[in-house]
Amino acid sequence: MSESAAVQKPPSQGIITTLLSWTGRVISALMVSLCFSLAAEWVGIAFFWPGLGAQHSHMMMRKELGWFAQNVQQSLLSADPVGQLEHCLQLTWQWLFVNTKVVEWLASLRIKPSGEIVRSAAVYGEAAIYITLTFVLRVFILLLTAPLFLLAAITGVIDGLVRRDIRRFGCGYESGFVYHRAKRMVLPVFFLAWVIYLSLPFSIPPWVVLLPAAFLFGITVSITVGTFKKYI
């Protein structure tokens, strides 16, 4: 048996495997973003705004809630986005911090006399609560902006197909190097926008990060489709 015959093609992934793979990637991106946001806030409390303590994260959460209530009155995915966001935040507060007695434990640390280390732990714990709620708020905003990235992807596919047909019928140059590099950048560009936006230790309008990210995502998709091989 020849060596080429012995080499077998790897089995193709099924729909369930693909869905599980994408679910794992999304969960991993969210967990990494939450860890980065907590680390950034704790580093800020230690070095950049020690006088504010947990008030910094609390003010950031209040500011983003105010921005959301003023600017997101309706959405393609939700008839009442403000009400649904409040419901999500209430569930997060109840299940993660009230039912687990975390809020009660932090309150006891602040009331009874304790050392500097214990008081600092209470401050960092309270900041973690506000950062987690802000994280849930930002994830909710990302879900509402899913049509933006979908539109960018569709636009990139259409533009790439047009340029590919022009290249096919016009004897254009075909570069496998560009195609493979652009293909590898599609998912990192998509998830990097999530990580950056969810990890920011300060409050900014979401469009400052998400609009350039959607534009770059669409360009990457367009390059990938446009440089696909001429003949299948």
UniProtKB/TrEMBL annotation:
NCBIfam families: conj_TIGR03747 (TIGR03747). This is TIGR03747 family integrating conjugative element membrane protein. Pfam families: DtrJ-like. The keyword Transmembrane applies. It comes from the Bacteria. The keyword Ubl conjugation does not apply. The chain crosses the membrane at residues 26-52, 139-162, 182-200, 206-228. Keywords: Membrane, Transmembrane, Transmembrane helix.
